[in-house]
Amino acid sequence: MAIRSSEQLVLVDHPLAQHKLALIRDRTTTTRDFRWLMGELAAFLCYEATRDLEMEQIDVETPLETARAAQISGKKLGVVAVLRAGLGMLDAVLDLVPVARVGFVGVYRDEATLAPVEYYCKLPGDLEERDVLVLDPMLATGGSASAALRLIKEQGSRSIRLLSVVAAPAGLDRIAADHPDVTVYTAAVDRGLNEDGFILPGLGDAGDRLFGTR
What we know:
Largest sheet: 8 strands, mixed
Shape: globular
Number of strands: 12
Strand content: 25-35%
Helix content: 25-40%
CATH architecture: 3-Layer(aba) Sandwich
CATH class: Alpha Beta
Number of helices: 6
């Protein structure tokens, strides 16, 4: 894997995140628990991706006296879920940033060529004013994520961060080449891909495990 600066890749190695990653990898984890764990891991990634949000000082009246406190200021937030597996991360992220505007990008990978195929795009109309978090839990070849990022940039966004639960070196290389201005936040960089383009060791097909399909 190519050497990357901290601006291009953030590995979220908190012990709780790594513990939940071990559980979500387990093939015996139920669909219900898989959904729960996906949300919890998305929250860990969101915490890190929003760590440098601008803050401002305000006065708050507590039950006893006036206190100085801090609240988020600066740019507004947007969240874009890459269908369909990104839906498994969406609710947890919105629990943390409930005022964010939400968009969706539909991209699937052609099983024969592994090339991305775009089929849906519905985004907020003011992305140029927002810091955007893109949710795509499995960064494998990087083709689908790169296509989604291109569509988002075409709508005016210039501040984007990609949240992926698990990433492969090939996917990280693709994002670094196509979108060097986008930082990837992930809980693991796995070994590689198999002949079908699935991450190894990975955690299987995230969409199928989220929704109980095959």
